[in-house]
């Protein structure tokens, strides 16, 4: 059991570390490349889908029940298509700091969705851990000097996209754990990405023909390659592993790593400075994750109310 939990923690942490780097790269791509968000999403879904289908050829064949194909389609809608599309639109319309602050609501929403749909109890300890990490990540963001945004300012539409992104992805984390446990990562992801790409096709044709790919710089192509391989294929290989091994609220709390990683990159590149307040704030994030990970497990509380304060 401890080994399975350790795998889940490592997978969730790896996913959100990649997503943290992705925040930095995505902003450059969406604001400088001239590639529309829906086209960028279609590229991610298409190439990552191909990688998962190729990988499935060397894996043991797994039959998916017809009723579960519909569930996998739903997972594609709320786990890939809508979250990625709203994220790409949000990051082009918000500053990195504002985006990071708004996304801190994801673990809170996930906790409630998991309680509602999966009967995962909400205890005082779990709620306290989520709140502790929430305070820590907001503090570390506000203490950051990397408020960069240049000429970019946060727009009301950008905030709407941010909130939609958090809510939809929290719904995915809070409802799809049983499905991720039923099938292997490769099997579930190959279908989810296939459905995601098919969903994008009707919206992609016109923007695709209007895109001048020749004007995209070599540096941005490298960032797009990172986006496709690491931030999509690798990250969405790791995420279902985390979902299958640890609880949804705990998986989502690793999302607090995203702004920390983004700020760490700013520090390394000279755009920010490391201070004691940032270290303390980051420590609060990790302590909060530890508190939630040690809270009483839902598996031991099946006879109790799904939302219980203790």
Task: Write up what this structure looks like.
This protein has 310 residues and is mainly alpha-helical. The chain has one domain. The chain is 74% helix and 0% strand. Helix 3 packs across helix 9. The longest helix is centred in the first third of the chain and has 31 residues. The protein is globular.
Short précis:
The chain is mostly helical.
Summed up, the domain count is: 1
Shape: globular
Task: Tell me which oligomeric state these chains represent.
Answer: single chain
The percentage helix is over 70%
Please give the largest β-sheet: none
Q: What do the pLDDT scores average to? A: 86
- Cα(first) to Cα(last) distance is 25 Å
List keywords for this structure.
310 residues, 13 helices, 74% helix, mainly alpha
Please specify the SSE layout and strand pairing.
Elements: H1 2-32, H2 37-56, H3 66-91, H4 96-102, H5 106-117, H6 124-142, H7 156-175, H8 177-182, H9 185-209, H10 218-245, H11 248-253, H12 257-268, H13 276-293
Helix pairs in contact: 1-10, 1-12, 2-3, 2-9, 2-10, 3-7, 3-9, 5-7, 6-13
